[in-house]
Amino acid sequence: MHTYQSGPSHNEPILEANGLAAVTLTAIWSDGIAEHEDRKHFGNFSVFREIDLLPPDIASKLIGMRPGNCAEQQISADEIVGEWLEERQIVTDMNSFDSHYQRGLVVTPHAGRFYPQGYLHGTRDIVRETIAPMRVIKCEQNRLTVDLNHPLARIGLVIRLQLDDILPGYDRRGGRCNSLVEDLLQYNGFAASLRDGRETDYGDFTTRQTRRDDKPDSVFYSRPRMVQHLDARALSTINQLYRKLIPAQAEVLDLMASHDSHLHSIPWSKLHALGMNKKELATNKSADRTLLQDLNKTTRLPFENNSLDAIVCTASIEYLIEPLKILKECLRVLRPEGVLVVTFSNRWFPTKAIKIWSELHEFERLGMVTQWLKQSDFVNLQTFSSRGLPRPADDKYADKTPFSDPIYAAWGYKTPASL
Q1: Cβ pair 342, 255 in contact under 8 A
Q2: Pick from 83, 174, 189: which is nearest to 134 by CA?
Q3: For residue 26, is pLDDT > 60?
């Protein structure tokens, strides 16, 4: 996914050696299953303090850049997160995993999942308070294999820096202890597949998933909610992604739709909005056709085979109790080379989401949705994340957090007819 800002103007100022700036860092990488692009915005970057912590090819181009300019470097993740070491892959007794580590919770380890290292007891150099992540590699009877290496170790990256804005003022202070690139990569690898090709154990999604509130969805969704569930900047990021991925004159389905389909300025030929609340759908000005359907009750989509060009599912995938059935239905109704795009954030109705959603880190959710797409036979899988953008000043939560809601997206395509 590319940036959407216009190119730099030669009338704009250049970044100086003591300058302050707003920048966006992007990591582009692959785990062999999907292509990943992770973006994080930093609103107050000090050239003097932080330039030496950037990859050298980027640092050498930074001074003199204008807003809108980019610089990038291909690099091994080991150079940033540390070399992968065999001795940091530990085989231990299953009883070493403290299932009662968190008060009130009983946690069972699952292959491919991530947990704080403090869950392990009796292991050298690990104390209960250690929150650095570890990945469970294998659970075999009474034996547990965990990997303490960074999940991106041994993966090649492209790191890109975009200069978003030059801020007023200067800075000649030192003392920063961490780098922006380390911050960018801290959790991204949680979306990576296991290196040996095995699937992560997210539970059995061939059966219905449990939720805290298992009453019929028709009860919960009977009251219309004419509100945006994400802030305006996050919704703009989603809209930009949809504009990039949905071809012109496409016939589109907004799956689990509401009063806004977030498809502004997209020249589709026809938009179907399928949702749960009649009043919400009636106020969706973009939709050419609306359909009422509870996908947790009736999983078959009311479309012919090979009849749609694109399907979007915005901030709703976590409410499907049989997600694989729905995704396979999406594949059925898409035309060859059609695209399904799933987007979500870190806000949801906890009582109606499937139980595992609340148990996972945000990037693990991205990995789970990507695995669902793969299990449903989508191809050319890709993911995108965007974090750290400033929350709009007029947003109702602006006094509670300075950051816009993060956006996570996974998408895939139906195999071309020629294959």
Answers
A1: no
A2: 189
A3: yes
